[in-house]
Design goal:
Elements lengths: L1 E5 L4 H12 L3 E6 L8 E5 L16 E4 L7 H19 L3 E7 L8 H15 L4 E6 L5 H8 L5 E5 L3 E2 L4 H14 L3 E2 L7 E4 H11 L5 E5 L3 H8 L23 H5 L39 H8 L2 E2 L11
Parallel strand pairs: 1-2, 1-4, 2-3, 4-5, 5-6, 6-9, 7-11
Antiparallel strand pairs: 8-10, 10-12
Helix pairs in contact: 1-5, 2-3
The chain binds NADP nicotinamide-adenine-dinucleotide phosphate (NAP).
The site of NADP nicotinamide-adenine-dinucleotide phosphate has 27 residues, from α1 and β5.
Length: 317
């Protein structure tokens, strides 16, 4: 299949384009700074202006990963509309877009833009698939890197994430490329729930940074949306967990893929989630495992919550 990947120079895009090439597809990455890689071509495309969208011609499938939280209206909303229109004009058969678990009714402007992106894809003339995923392992390290080098890190109080191995998201996307248009598929969540504070502590420790963590009370709708579990989803047991992961990940190196092979263990075999809970969670699904004897399970007791697997197996390793 001939597949063009918008945002192909990003963390997920690099993984996916390589994986598609390995699976025998003809992959092209598109962005403002995309560079060719082995077996992967590159084209320039700026979704904020529409420059380069004519490159969609000749592709069977477009995987839409391009996103910019700092320019979400221009890129994620207006850029997606440009992409959908150009894909329809070019006769693309399948538009596969990636979104984020819990974007419905979220007050965070970037999430509102992602929800709007989904609506534009759904309303367009190109048969589509939408996959929502939880936060990648690199998100918190990236956040820490962006903070000014002051002696403290503000961390919203009471927030937990369900970090997922980006290699697992790439694997799922490759399957969805091959499956063809599938509509809104089941959300993809990482195997465990980790308090944001613990993730920040792990990253600071791995980077050997001494910073005071300052719990930030977030009142109002944004605080509620971050705390109420809508960003959590059905867990998959594939790939690395946060507690296995080197929190010393260097996202800048990850972005250009140099660490990609050593950073990821082979996927564990388990089923994909089969139903989407769209950000809502059942208390049952999030109950901690009852057997907490192994070292990683003790770590789980200290910081992370184990989740029952979608295939019913315990998730502590
Ligand atoms: N990171 C997460 O935790 C997470 C979780 C769930 C879902 N997602 C979604 O997964 C997708 C990929 O995420 P990621 O973390 O891999 O992204 P990323 O590393 O931040 O990369 C973003 C990509 O978007 C491209 N881009 C930005 N502005 C653009 C523009 N004006 N025109 C064209 N391309 C543009 C960037 O390339 P240039 O700068 O070269 O243009 C880059 O390739 C996104 O849709 C994101 O919302 C991410």
């Amino acid at each position: 299949m001939r597949v063009l990947i918008t945002g192909g120079s990003g963390e997920l895009g690099i993984r996916l384009s390589r994986l598609l090439a390995e699976r025998g597809h003809v992959a092209t990455v598109a962005s403002r700074s995309a560079r060719p890689m082995r077996d992967v071509a590159a084209v320039e495309m700026d979704l904020a202006t529409g420059a380069g969208v004519e490159s969609l011609a000749g592709h069977d499938t477009v995987v839409h990963l391009a996103s910019n939280p700092f320019e979400a209206q221009r890129v994620d909303v207006e850029g997606t509309q440009r992409l959908v229109d150009a894909a329809a004009a070019a006769g693309v058969d399948h538009l596969l877009a990636v979104s984020i678990v819990g974007v419905d009714d979220h007050p965070y402007p970037y999430y509102r833009a992602k929800a709007e992106m989904e609506r534009i894809v759904q309303k367009g003339d190109v048969p589509w698939t939408i996959l929502r995923a939880t936060q990648f392992h690199s998100l918190v390290p990236r956040f820490v890197d962006m903070l000014p080098a002051v002696g403290f890190v503000p961390v919203p109080r009471g927030v937990s994430l369900q970090p997922i191995d980006v290699a697992v998201v790439a694997e799922r996307l490759a399957e969805l490329v091959e499956a063809g248009p599938s509509g809104r598929v089941a959300d993809l969540g990482g195997p465990e729930i980790v308090p944001l504070r613990k993730m920040v502590e792990d990253v600071l420790g791995a980077k050997r940074l001494r910073r005071l963590i300052v719990p930030l009370p977030l009142p109002g709708g944004l605080g509620t949306a971050l705390r109420d579990g809508r960003m959590l989803s059905t867990p998959t047991q594939r790939g690395q967990r946060w507690s296995d992961h080197e929190a010393g990940i260097n996202p800048a190196r990850d972005r250009v893929g140099r660490l990609s092979a050593p950073a990821t263990k082979p996927s564990r075999s388990a089923a994909w989630p089969t139903s989407s809970r769209s950000g809502s969670r059942s208390s049952n699904a999030l109950a901690p495992s009852r057997t907490m004897r192994s070292p990683s399970a003790r770590k789980t007791e200290m910081g992370t919550r184990a989740l029952p697997a979608v295939d019913g197996q315990a998730t502590t390793s």
